[in-house]
């Protein structure tokens, strides 16, 4: 096992993978079923021919820069386990911080908070919120039927009950109001296409791009949210760090009190907005 792991890490380094040692260990853990101390104790044992064949297959896919999460099949995220495949964006660590900020929002103290997760993808934000706040009434929306199918599988996997709606942003629930509108919309400027890590090319394009400046979806969502937030309700958005301050400034000219929040690396990535009275 030790030899396979060393060779695998070497091939992953040559392929430009950012975390070669940890990816090699994860693949070994997934295929052999041993992890942590159990794997260490067995590292001088030979691999079975079945495990070796399977490891060679998943390593070749990782060397070709297929995301590790597809090879493992799931990710632990925000207190829930989420199945991951090509139907939806792989949930990112920075979005866990958005979940954390929204859960701690001082304006949202009522346990039965009504939440809309717009562009739910795997269901990450909707399910993570409900896991932490079981009395919440959570609606998860997406334009993509495939993403919603995956999100529904993830709700079942976690034993959580969420309302799903398919359509453009908040249009499927027009006329309804929410205490929290939460979204990690597609936010990359279209011109970023072609300059992303190979892993990101596996995410659906519908999940990535937000128009010429990346703010197309976020702007439209804010416009809808202005009429669909309950009094005192809050809009939380994740954005590209290039765009958080510009969007907050724009919202301030349109009747919002908007503030920028940083992620764990100090980048301006989130906007919290409430309607100014
Ligand atoms: C960046 S992904 C976020 C997925 C998930 N919320 C997360 O944080 O991992 C954006 C999501 O928005 C969805 N989407 C794109 N355009 C949309 C639209 N006009 N209305 C609703 N959802 C949309 C995509 O299908 C995708 O699932």
TrEMBL record:
Q: Quick check: keyword Amino-acid biosynthesis in the entry?
A: no
Residues binding substrate, per UniProt = 184-187
Q: Which reaction does it catalyse?
A: L-glutaminyl-[peptide chain release factor] + S-adenosyl-L-methionine = N(5)-methyl-L-glutaminyl-[peptide chain release factor] + S-adenosyl-L-homocysteine + H(+)
Q: Extract the CDD domains matched here.
A: AdoMet_MTases (cd02440)
Where does this protein hold S-adenosyl-L-methionine?
Answer: 119-123, 142, 184
Listed A to Z, the keywords are:
Methyltransferase, S-adenosyl-L-methionine, Transferase
Q: What InterPro entries does the record point to? A: DNA_methylase_N6_adenine_CS (IPR002052), HemK-like (IPR004556), N5-glutamine_MTase (IPR050320), PrmC_N (IPR040758), RF_methyltr_PrmC (IPR019874), SAM-dependent_MTases_sf (IPR029063), Small_mtfrase_dom (IPR007848)
Question: What's the superkingdom here?
Answer: Bacteria
Domain Release factor glutamine methyltransferase N-terminal spans what residues?
3-73
Q: Which family does it belong to?
A: Belongs to the protein N5-glutamine methyltransferase family. PrmC subfamily.
Q: What is this protein called?
A: Release factor glutamine methyltransferase
């Amino acid at each position: 096992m030790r030899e396979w792991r060393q060779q695998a890490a070497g091939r992953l380094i040559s392929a430009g993978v950012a975390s070669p040692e940890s990816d090699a260990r994860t693949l070994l853990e997934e295929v052999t079923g041993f992890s942590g101390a159990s794997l260490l104790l067995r590292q001088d044992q030979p691999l079975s021919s079945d495990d070796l064949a399977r490891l060679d297959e998943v390593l070749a896919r990782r060397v070709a820069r297929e995301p590790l999460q597809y090879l493992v099949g799931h990710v632990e995220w925000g207190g829930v386990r989420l199945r991951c495949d090509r139907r939806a964006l792989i949930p990112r660590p920075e979005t866990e911080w958005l979940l954390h900020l929204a859960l701690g929002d001082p304006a949202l103290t009522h346990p039965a908070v009504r939440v809309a997760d717009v562009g739910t993808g795997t269901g990450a934000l909707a399910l993570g919120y409900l896991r932490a706040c079981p009395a919440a009434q959570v609606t998860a929306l997406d334009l993509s039927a495939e993403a919603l199918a995956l999100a529904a599988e993830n709700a079942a996997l976690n034993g959580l009950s969420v309302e799903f709606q398919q359509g453009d942003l908040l249009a499927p629930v027009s006329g309804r109001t929410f205490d929290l509108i939460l979204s990690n919309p597609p936010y990359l400027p279209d011109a970023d296409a072609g300059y992303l890590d190979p892993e990101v090319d596996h995410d659906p394009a519908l999940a990535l791009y937000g128009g010429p400046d990346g703010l197309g979806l976020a702007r439209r969502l804010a416009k809808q949210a202005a009429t669909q937030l309950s009094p005192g309700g809050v809009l939380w958005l994740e954005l590209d760090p290039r765009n958080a301050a510009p969007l907050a400034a724009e919202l301030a000219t349109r009747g919002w009190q908007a503030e920028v929040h940083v992620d764990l690396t100090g980048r301006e990535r989130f906007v919290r907005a409430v309607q100014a009275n």
